Every structure is written in structure tokens, then in C-alpha cells.
Amino acid sequence: MFSPARRRLALVHTGGTIASRPDPRGAGLTPQQAPMLDGMIPGLEDVELLSFQPFNLPSPHVTPRHMLELQTLLGGLEDVDGAVVTHGTDTLEETAFFLHLTLNVPYPVVLTGSMRHTGELSWDGPGNLRDAAQTALHPASKGRGPLVAFGGDLFDARTVTKVHSSAVDAFGGYPGPIGRIDQVADQQMEAGAALRYFAGPQERHFYTPQRLSAHVEVLYAYAGWQGEGYAEAQARSDGLVIAALGTGNLPAELLPLIAATRQPVVIATRTHAGPILPVYGYAGGGATLRRAGAIPASFLNAHKARLLLMLLLSLGMHQGEIRAVFEEGRF
Asked: What mean pLDDT, rounded, does the chain reach?
């Protein structure tokens, strides 16, 4: 009698609240060894689990070099049908976007975490893990790049962002989820039948430097900013990203500073969502910044624009090439 091959799921644990417990000495929450999470995913009795823990960190301690380590691990996996990455929520969206830019594998990768820890009655870790595992093993998830599963919603790595510091439904991002996975009580339903996508896979572009050699900093614009900190950040950076006002505008004092800067300066927005539209012609308006050499970040927020600029600079791209990547949306 024919027996289908057993599916294989990689579980890659990196720390975060989902793997944290209160310190008995009262020092607060700290990440624990995460393989204990492997036995908390229901409905995977017919799935072979492969467990990895490349590092065990709270997400504020995760750096782009940790992301590159994670990309190398995932890129080296063979004969797996999907992978789940558990991660702290503070920088989860950055790791997801880094993997979106650098990871080219044939199987789905889904990142998840939790907002509450293992000692709370309302711990959301097991439910998010189950959703992420089912999503990673679902055939409709192929070709979409890394996804984020949180609270039943499925997000694109390019647009997902943490929108609340403590709520269980902490993730969002315009234009919203690209899919939804709901658990059903009917045991006769086909596994994964409750997963739906609202859009098809899109073309992706990959950037895979051997090492991250570039240093990029983010500056935040505010009313009355006259460029404080700009010269210092420029002196120690290979490129800058500015979280600008509205559709990409700055106080007039920044215009001559940007015009005199030789490194790439990418203009993102400090608003919750929306593209950079260089339309205003007053001093410091988006149109004048672009003429001065600034590069619009399209719809990327500042911290994702930073990662893309870092990758492009590490590949040795010049400003014209970098501008083309951002303006043509090659990410």
C-alpha cells in the first residue's frame, strides 16, 4: 500500500518572549532554551521536526550579523517542506525583511513569536506556533518569501510592522494581512483548509553579500530640526536613512546638508504607512531633496530601508545603482 512521504519541518529558535520565563530572582523576563517549544505544537504528529537554535537572544540584541547567520542556516537546509523561525517581536519585522531580501529557498519560511510569556495564562506562543507551522507546510505558501504569522494573520515581510507595544495583536502594516489562518473544530476537514491568501505571490529580488561591511544609521526628523546629529552620523556612516515628515519632507536647514553629502541619503517617512512622494518644491520639500541627491525609499519604513541600503552598500553598489533599486522597487 502506498504511504506518502513524511513531511519535515525545521523549527529555528532565536529567543524572545516566546521562549522567556520570569527570572526566579526577580530580574525580569529572560530567554530560556527554546527546544521546549517543539512539543507544544498540536496537530503535527505526522511531521518530522528538526530543531535548531543558532542563538538565544532578546530581540533588541539581534543584529544584522545574526540575521545573516540565520540566513546561512536556512539556506543550508535540505529536504525540508517548511521552516518556522521563533523570534522576539521588537525586531522581528527587520529579520523577516532581511530574509526576504537575501533568502532564496524552495520551501516556505514563517516567522512568529509571542507578546506574552510562558508563565501567563494568556500565553499566545502555542497558538502562534501552530499557525506558523501549518502555514509553513501549506502548499499555497510557496513562492511568497518569508511570512510573519501572528494572531491568525499572515503578513508580507516588506510591509509588516509592530503596531502596538503590548497588545496580543501587535502586528499590522498597510495595506494589512495578505492571508488568514483560522483553526476549525471540524476534525473531518482537510488539514490546512482554514488557510486563505488574499493575493498571489510577487516577484522578488535577492541580494546576498558575503559579509555586511557597510554601516548605516537612521536619523529621525521633527519640527524645528536644524540638523543636530547629522554631521556626526555622516562622519561615521557609509550611508544615512532619514525618517522624514509626511511624504518625505524636511526642515529647510537639512537641504544644504544633504546636498553636500557624498554618501547615499535615503528618505523614508516617520508616518505609520505610505510612500515617499517627492512633490513639494519648497526648501526641504521632497522634490528639492531629490534634486539635492536624496533617494526616496518608496513604501519602506526607515529601519527596513536601512537594511536594504546596508546590503546594497556591502555589495559595492554606487549611488546610481542604489537609486535604481529603491525607485524601481527591486525588493
From this structure: 93
